[in-house]
Design goal:
With about 325 residues, the protein is α+β, with helices and mostly antiparallel strands. About 20% of the residues lie in helices and about 30% in strands. It has 7 helices and 18 strands.
Length: about 325
């Protein structure tokens, strides 16, 4: 029985046991899809990245959840890039060949990984606040007021998410999602999952606070989601959030002040947070706090948005892999 090296890299954080845990298999050459899926189930993190030599890029990368293969994954890309840089295999940049094209990745001096996303697409969808409220387990009023100016939409910079604005952090934090309903809703609008967000944040410097649910991919809730962060930046641009005086306090359209005291579940007073002429140079999206896996995603909006974050290797070991004809389960 052979063994294979596997790592767990916590992405969008500088602290282990925070952010979003990604599996990384540095040498997946020769592994078929069924074995990759079995390894992803064994590692049991939201996504695992498998690296092999690339034809059109430095590396071929494939992503598997414990349930299925997905075309793109931001935090697993960060995890793979962090490993390659720490191993001294790459320096300032690296490229990954994915199922949907080549991802260009650059590094800052502090180790921040920047992923150049695909050109954004956004399409508004009419799913009804009642259906959204039932699926998310959120009071309908938390969606209706803000939804008058910020309609739900499917946005993508490589992977489509249904973007749903929510009034306050306390509303978002108290959500009790119906995963079956979210899976059905996602299928109906042709999205991988639902990303709900509020401008009411814990950190004063944060642009918004998000939560992501993708049960169709085998992920009840993703702690910190890079692909959805790129998508929500495209959404904000689409709805005019980056236009001068887009959201003013006197309209009451968007309650946006940072949460008082920096504690979960405390309502904030309405305030002006997005009041700029053109896209800001960078957005900071906080996520994962309700799963005790806090992290921050940085996004640089544009025609090809960049999603950025740090990462730290939390586990480096070997996994026993049965022979192709062996029916034994994988063992750590």
């Amino acid at each position: 029985m052979e063994t294979i090296r596997v790592l767990q890299v916590d992405a969008f954080t500088t602290e282990p046991l925070a952010g979003n845990a990604a599996g990384v298999v540095p040498d997946a050459a020769g592994l078929g899809a069924e074995r990759m899926e079995a390894i992803a189930r064994e590692l049991s993190v939201s996504e695992t990245a498998f690296l092999s030599p690339g034809d059109d890029a430095d590396y071929r990368i494939r992503y598997f959840t414990p349930r299925r293969e997905v075309d793109r994954c931001g935090h697993a890309t960060v995890g793979a890039a962090v490993h390659l840089r720490e191993a001294g295999v790459v320096d300032d940049a690296v490229s990954f060949e994915t199922n949907t094209g080549v991802l260009e990745v650059e590094f800052e001096g502090d180790g921040t990984v920047w992923i150049r996303e695909e050109p954004p697409t956004v399409r508004e969808v009419d799913v009804g606040h009642g259906r959204l409220a039932d699926a998310l387990g959120i009071d309908r009023a938390a969606l209706e007021g803000i939804g008058a100016d910020l309609p739900p939409a499917v946005a993508s910079t490589g992977l489509p998410f249904l973007i749903v604005p929510v009034a306050y952090l306390s509303d978002l934090g108290s959500a009790e999602p119906d995963l079956a309903a979210i899976e059905e809703l996602s299928a109906d609008v042709e999205a991988i999952g639902v990303y709900a967000f509020t401008f009411d944040t814990l950190a004063a410097e944060a642009t918004l606070h998000g939560r992501a649910f993708a049960p169709a991919a085998g992920i009840a809730e993703d702690p910190v989601t890079g692909t959805a962060s790129g998508a929500v930046a495209a959404y904000l641009d689409h709805v005019g959030a980056f236009e001068a005086d887009a959201w003013r306090a006197d309209t009451g359209a968007v309650p946006t002040g940072p949460t008082a005291g920096g504690e979960l579940g405390v309502d904030a007073a309405p305030d002006v947070r997005i009041d700029v002429d053109g896209p800001p140079a960078e957005l900071r999206l906080e996520q994962g706090h309700f799963l005790d896996r806090p992290g921050t995603v940085r996004v640089r909006p544009g025609s090809r948005p960049q999603v950025g974050g740090r990462g730290v290797v939390a586990l480096d070991g070997r996994l026993a892999i049965p022979d192709a004809t062996d029916e034994d389960i994988l063992e750590v």
